[in-house]
Amino acid sequence: MSETLRNFANTYLMWNEGPLIWGSDVLILLTIIGIVGVLTYFKKWRWLWDEWLTTVDHKRIGIMYLIAALLMLFRGGVDAELLRTQLAIPGNHFLDAAHYDQIFTTHGTIMILFMAMPFIFALFNIVVPLQIGARDVAFPYLNAVSFWLFFFGALLFNISFVFGGSPDAGWVSYPPLSELGFDPGPGENYYLLGIQISGIGSIATGINFLATILKMRAPGMSLMRMPLFTWSVLGACIMIIFAFPALTVALALLLLDRVAGTHFFTMLHGGNPAMFVNLFWIWGHPEVYIVVLPAFGVFSEVVATFARKRIFGYASMVSSLILISVISYFVWVHHFFTMGAGPDVNTFFAIASMAVGIPTGVKVFNWLFTMWRGRIRLSLPMMWTLAFIPTFAIGGATGVMLAVAPADYQYHNSYFLIAHFHQTLIGGVVFGMLAGMYYWWPKMFGFKLDERLGRWAFWFFNIGFYICFMPQYALGLMGMQRRMYVYPADMGWNTLNLVSTIGAYLMGIGFLFIVAQVVYSIRHGERDLTGDPWDGRTLEWSLPSPAPHYNFAVIPVVTDRDMWWILKREGREEELMPRPEEVKDIHMPKNSGVPFLMGVCFFVGGFGVVFNWWWLAVAGLAGVLLSLLSRSFQYEEEYSLPAEKVIETEISLGRL
Amino acid sequence: MSAGHKSLLLVVGAAAALFLSGCSPNYLVLNPAGPVGREEMHLIVLSTVLVLAVVIPVFVLLAFIVWRYRDRPGNPAAYRPEWSESRILEIVWWGIPIIIVGVLGFYTAKTTFALTEPPESSTQPLTIQVTSLNWKWLFQYPGQGVATVNYCEIPVGVPVQFELTADSPMNSFWVPQLGGQEYAMPGMAMRLWLQADKPGTYYGHGANFTGEGFAHMGFNVVAVSQKDFDQWVSKAKSTGQALTEAGYQQLKKPGVMGTATYSSYPPGLFHDTVWTNGGRYDPKMAGMGGTDGRAGMMPKGAASMPGTGAPK
To answer: Mean pLDDT over all residues of chain A?
Structure first.
């Protein structure tokens, strides 16, 4: 009996790995006990279930995405600090190779798929319906399904840390390294299933917001009157719909290789690992534009608002968005120029990759000239936007340099590449999402985040960023490869690595300041009583903060781009206030616990497949089918909110 | 100081530091020791100059705009909240990047095709067959009949055709001072031309992650005169041990090791490795020989597409 127990503890709980795992177990256990204790003590279980776990309200789903994204930013950030600590000095013994490999794998996977993706989805959800004058997304129930699939996919991925072992084949997970022969542990299965489950949710989100933007805009809001953030979401959604299925196929086939003995990606028996590489990057390259386009959208909103000026070259901004999303499908081979595609293929993809820089450069100049002859206020969202411009200019420039195929033979897999993509993904996506978070935070929660703490966070993070990543360009040109857990001491890499690590710590301190800022502001943050704390330009700022759950008591009629700004300048704000005679009964979607339960079932099924416990996998899948069935027999998924109730709410908000 | 100003200073400082230290011999990529690396460095320099033509105006504009249009009382600068179109300006910043990409694209295409040829056509090239193992590099000299682990010797001024494969997860073969890298993949034979112009010991390393021992997959490429190279070969033949089939199976086992020199190796070992790892399923590898993989030789000459992967 004790033998069986010890076996279980060592195989699955990895207790033989020592204090690191024990400590994590204890921390996780304490956290769970803490959460359960607090919920029970304050009798909040009912509230949690009714208001959050079963909600189909896009604003709440957005907030849940945001919380998840920040948690994952923390986890991915801790991974990064561990990696940089190991690399601070050559031949360090802080981590061993196996742990280092696991940590860089989870760092990359989490940051892209479980941090950047939910962060953009948070803003999709919070902003898009309010910005286009809609009451919710096109498919609110599906929206909840998307969130819970993301949530349980991320949970499944993260649980690998304490149950069975983390994946260790890199976030790109190329076969044959990721095949059973070289990687027998369950970690790789966790990777495949965690991403797969949340990926289904991502595709659904893409469809949902495409339909929302195309079909649910307020009357009068033609495509060319749409705010640029909504345009960027439209672009991102089209890319999601085309790109994610490639990932789904790649992951599914690799999973079959691992659990069913197929040979899609082994040369042996006629498969081909290069096919995985192609499929992965057919998704992977559009993916980086999927996460950066919404950031571009945020910058466009923020620049116009905080320069108090119309966005410069709107038509150019829209066409560059569209061009980026189209060209991004013709650049994927630049991730493996050195894999032998031939000079003709390499030339095509090299020039296409450079070409994607053209519309991006145009956007930068349009942002700059939006500020020209404007009045620039340096609030937090604007500071992150201003910091983005030089960062992304360098990241974009090194991107064009990497696109030069023969030169890429020298950059590929070196720290030059690492510096480049961190500069674009942090400088673009993270700065953009933080700008968006600061900008729309009052709309979500009804109070502003503290400026003073936010400035500390800004400077620590920004200065840390340059100290961390500029040396890595140099290291790349010195010949340092990525993914080495130790490096030789005689290569001249030591100082720059130490500097880079210090930069990473400074960024970590910056993140802690953001945490402090949020905690402090919950109590002391400036309350937003007007609903329009930044003197905004678009429809969401005409609503109270936070917006009532039906958003608009009366759907507005849109007559202009920057509608709210123009009404304010002309003193016609009243036009967007509801009049009692116009308020009608509102049909709202009912809450449902099924999406949450479906997520649980996916989790259980995925867990079963990870360990090849087929009875559990079948049970989970049966649960998924049941939840799908139950939805088919649900005939009353809407309810009617009576006009009197709406009027009552509007009066209490001071709008009537 | 504004956000723009401070990060501008940082960036310029970092760029200057990078530029000044670029002369240091530690910057392997910027200190090429052969024609391939040199050509790649020329493109790196060209592309850097071209992108700076966009980056510098962005920095200057950003600093100027943020300084001039700050929202502070009594700012005399113009405020035109509705000014949002300018055909001429937009033509400028659509046009200039298009020209830059045109120029850079032209040179990229030219060099991409040029690097598929041997760096020098007057000298008879040397062929070295490279196998990435877990976690060491095996070098075989089909013309000389010797083999080494984790280092190789090459004659100065002779183009070397590296044929790359893996009997392990895919790796990438990189000797920064001689030129760019190429993947080593199981079941395939990829080609890479490199050449050293001056004698020296050049750092090389696997560049694509292959698992736990990956960090220890460094190797040296030792470039010596033709005379010294010939001497090294005969010394290896007379003093080294033979690499046997069993010895290779031992090498294949996951593990890290130092260098080794072998006086001979099983004939057709490289082809066998490609063949048994799946090359036999690949029509492009059909030219490699008979069913046992030992009968034929790799196609030479026109079929060789160094740096571009499988033979046609």
So the answer is: 95
d(CA A356, CA A416): 20
- Could you identify the residue written with the tokens 């507005």? A556
Task: List the structure tokens of B195.
Answer: 């050449």
Statement: residue B15 has pLDDT above 80: no
Q: Are A543 and A465 in contact (CB under 8 A)?
A: no
* Consecutive H or E run containing B261: strand B260-264
Query: B187 and A312 in contact by Cβ < 8 A?
Result: no
Domain boundaries A43-592+637-653, corresponding CATH code = 1.20.210.10
Query: Within A42-116, where are the H helices?
Result: 45-47, 58-87, 97-109
| Beta partners for residue A124, in sequence order | none
Cβ-contact A218, A555 below 8 angstroms: yes
CA separation for the pair B15, B21 (Å, rounded): 10
Four-point Cα dihedral B109, B112, B116, B122, nearest 10? 80
Q: Six-digit token pair at A96?
A: 């061993």
B-contacting residues of A 344-373, CB under 8 Å?
Answer: 346-347, 350-351, 354-355, 357-358, 361-362, 364-366, 368-373
Q: How far is CA B37 from CA A604, B163, B181, in A?
A: 53, 18, 10
**How much of chain A is in helix, strand and coil states, percent to nearest 5?**
70, 0, 25
**pLDDT tens, position by position, B188-246:** 999 999 999 999 999 999 999 999 999 999 999 999 999 999 999 999 999 889 999 99
- CA dist., res. B100 & res. A558, Å (int): 41
Beta strands B241-242 and B260-264: pairing type?
parallel
Task: Summarize the confidence of residues A585-611 as an average pLDDT.
Answer: 96
Tokens of A534: 């930044």
Contact A217, A226 (CB under 8 A): yes
Alpha-carbon gap, residue B154 to B33, rounded angstroms: 13
Q: Which residues of A touch B205 (CB under 8 A)?
A: 479, 481
For residue B301, pLDDT over 60 is answered with: no
Of A269, A368, A397, the CB nearest to B61: A368
Amino acid at position A603, single letter: F
Structure-token pair, residue A27:
């921390």
Residue type, A310: R
Contacts of A102 in chain B (CB under 8 A): none
Instruction: Tell me the torsion sign for CA atoms B225, B228, B234, B237.
Output: negative
Three-state secondary structure call for residue A383? helix
Alpha-carbon separation of residue B29 from A478, B36, B222 (angstroms): 6, 11, 17
Q: In chain A, where are the structural domains located?
A: 1-42, 43-592+637-653
Name which of B134, B277, B149 is nearest B211 in CA terms: B134
A304-353 pLDDT, tens digit per residue, is 999 999 999 999 999 999 999 999 999 999 999 999 888 999 999 999 99
Q: What is the pLDDT of residue A16?
A: 84
Name the percent of chain B lying above pLDDT 90.
76
Residue (of B174, B180, B190) closest to B277 by Cα position: B190
- What is the least distance, in Å, from the CA of B307 to any CA of chain A? 6
Enter the DSSP assignment of B196: -
Write the single-letter amino acid at B141.
Answer: Y
Residue A523 tokens, joined = 């109590």
Quick one: which of A552, A549, A526, A550 has its CA closest to A541?
Answer: A552
